[in-house]
Design goal:
With 503 residues, the chain is an alpha+beta fold. It has 17 helices and 23 strands. The longest helix has 27 residues, at 99-125. The chain binds adenosine-5'-triphosphate (ATP). Residues 140-415 form the Aminoacyl-transfer RNA synthetases class-II family profile domain.
């Protein structure tokens, strides 16, 4: 598993997807740059989300609010007082860790054991194997599961009570060691605020303390009434937004899973109080459908319903994805009640209410939120796509099986040789296709090597121009996943590619 993750990171670099930020200065921890292919993949994921949320829903509109917000915003939202992580230091190594993550990692190791038991049983029972039944009746698995549950609920209780002594005790009892040095010499657990501070204004006396936004949601809440009025929106309706958010994360060793500067795709859905139960269910289902529509495997997703709720929520669930290091949160669906709008009313002194013409009364709407990290989605897509396949001739090929709709480059156009007029025909095809798709031209190396390069790059199609093309106006189109090749007319290319990459 570690191995797979290392391959993901090195492949992302080698093929121009993700680079360490400021690499020539030895990098900046937990900050990354998206390279030529990564920027395209990221944009395609963002567009895929925007299309599903904004374009396809008449009652959802999109905005683009500023990163800087009035500092009172973060008082109202609770981030000044309660946006903390529980930290613990190792006295020997002087390294700092998130106490909750140390405990969660410990539980993830138990989960790996469960996985192993399931796989073993699957092999033994073959077709008659029923996973749900096995997991709920096998003594060893049930024991593991109970252990995880006990640990997590004890941790949740302690974090909620703000008495963090039990979190430390838990770490000691489980004999959790510093992952880097193995030392078990821990300090007490302390809370640490995750917001980045900065200053607005030129002189020291007049400068105003600001925060870089730690989430995009508040830009939506403070604009709720502006959008509702100018867009003449009727409840239920949603406001969506994508954009950068910043958190001074302490545990920063999981590549783009947890970054200090990252991008969120959030949607706040404003509803009538009392209807949150049905909308919570609705958005859980819809968001899961969105994920499954990418064809990345149903087994790679699961819901995690929260027992411990944040101060603003009356129900919350995560959509978890099976990353190379195990199942982890990819997206959150939160029923936030009227917490945010009420808090902003209180701190701003402005009413943020909706007048319901049918009911002939005003109220503060309730909110359902869907919140997904764009970078985390990128990691899910990229790590799931990266595969090594044994071929019939005994060799292996590295292939990045990205969903075609998300692939940075849709087709590579390859002249079989660099002469006899073939490059010119290939360039002409590029000239036509580039109006509709991101395509590239490649003439370097033997065609087999070019195919492999495009496989590893995630390009769904290779289109080869050969000597016959001059006569019959046909080319060979090769499919990345099956490696099947077809002879097709040049004029059909657009339709063939469109069918595969459009949604
Ligand atoms: P975690 O528990 O993993 O820190 P969270 O519960 O704090 O995440 P939310 O505040 O609910 O996360 O943010 C919504 C989404 O934003 C998350 O589901 C995740 O995809 C993404 N996200 C949050 N923090 C980061 C980060 N530091 N780097 C990348 N993505 C992030």
């Amino acid at each position: 598993q570690d191995d797979k993750f290392k391959k993901v990171i090195s492949h992302a670099k080698e093929y121009g997807y993700v680079f360490q930020s400021s690499e020539i200065y030895d990098g900046l921890s937990a900050v990354y740059d998206y390279a030529q292919n990564g920027a395209e993949l990221k944009k395609n994921i963002r567009d895929y989300w925007w299309k599903a949320m904004v374009q396809m829903n008449e009652n959802i509109v999109g905005i683009d609010a500023a990163i800087f917000m009035h500092p009172t915003t973060w008082k109202a939202s609770g981030h000044v007082d309660a946006f903390n992580d529980p930290l613990i230091d190792n006295k020997d190594s002087k390294k700092r860790y998130r106490a909750d993550v140390l405990i969660e990692d410990y539980c993830a190791k138990i989960e790996v054991k469960i996985d192993k038991e399931v796989k073993k049983a699957e092999k033994r029972f073959g077709d008659s194997f029923n996973k749900d039944e096995f997991v709920s009746t096998n003594g060893r698995v049930v024991g593991y599961q109970e252990k995880i549950n006990t640990i997590l609920s004890r941790m949740a209780r302690s974090l909620e009570s703000e008495d963090l002594a039990d979190v430390k005790l838990l770490i000691e009892e489980l004999e959790i060691a510093d992952p880097l040095t193995g030392s078990k010499n821990w300090t007490d657990v302390k809370q640490f605020n995750l917001m980045f501070g900065t200053k607005l204004g030129a002189s020291a006396e007049t400068a105003m303390d600001l925060y870089l936004r730690p989430e995009t949601a508040q830009g939506i809440f403070v604009n709720f009434l502006n959008v509702q009025k100018t867009g003449r929106m009727k409840i239920p309706f949603g406001i969506a937004q994508t954009g950068k958010a910043f958190r001074n994360e302490i545990v920063a060793r999981q590549f783009i899973f947890r970054m200090r500067e990252f991008e969120q795709m959030e949607m706040q859905f404003f509803i009538k109080p009392g209807t949150q139960g049905e909308w919570y269910k609705h958005w859980k289902e819809h968001r899961m459908k969105w994920h499954l529509s990418l064809g990345m495997g149903e087994d790679n997703y699961r819901f995690h319903d929260h027992e411990k709720l944040a101060h603003y929520a009356d129900a919350a669930a995560d959509i978890e994805f099976k990353f190379p290091f195990g199942f982890k949160e990819l997206e959150g669906i939160h029923s936030r009640t009227d917490f945010d709008l009420k808090a902003h009313e209180e701190h701003s002194g402005k009413k943020l209410q909706y007048f319901d013409h049918e009911e002939n009364k005003s109220y503060t709407p309730y909110v359902l939120e869907t919140s997904i990290g764009l970078d985390r989605m990128f990691l899910a897509v990229f790590s799931n796509a990266l595969q090594e396949e044994e071929l019939e001739n005994g060799t292996t090929r590295t292939v990045l099986k990205l969903p075609s709709v998300l692939a940075p480059v849709k087709a590579a156009i390859l002249p079989l040789v660099k002469k006899d007029g073939l490059p010119e025909i290939a360039r002409e095809i590029v000239g036509e296709l580039k109006w509709d798709f991101n395509v590239i031209y490649d003439e370097k190396d033997a065609v087999g090597r070019r195919y492999r390069r495009q496989d590893a790059n995630g390009t769904p199609f290779c289109i080869t121009v050969d000597h016959d093309t001059k006569e019959d106006k046909m080319v060979t189109i090769r499919h990345r996943d099956t490696m099947e090749q077809q002879r097709v007319k040049i004029e059909e290319l657009r339709t063939i590619i469109k069918e595969e990459v459009d949604v």
